[in-house]
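HOLO CASE FILE
Compound: iron/sulfur cluster
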Amino acid sequence: MPSHNRRIFMLQLTAGSAALVAGRAALAQGAPMVNESDQQAVALGYAADSNKVDPKKYPRHVAGQTCAGCQLFTGKAGDVSGPCGIFPGKAVSAKGWCSAWVKKA
Ligand code: SF4
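Model generated. Tokens follow.
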């Protein structure tokens, strides 16, 4: 497994555990938004608008992929933002995207 994929897998594993521990309610209300310039956001290529993801830098990105459709997004359907297990204590834009995106089951 390439190191980038291994890193994302570990982040997802950690994120899933963190989300279970923290609980959705604690994260949902009043959480500050993830800033694209935050260190972890930069590392994962987070963009608040999925349409602005650089396709050369992130060839895995496919049009239509958004945080709202990601397994790690725990906001409610229709929410403009919500918690993401990758960014504990913060909210991501429902229209956003990062390289850890996983299709919601
Ligand atoms: S795509 Fe969005 S919801 Fe999914 S892991 Fe990245 S920031 Fe979180």
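CASE NOTES: The CA atoms of residues 81 and 93 lie 4 Å apart. The chain has one domain: 3-93.
CLOSED: yes
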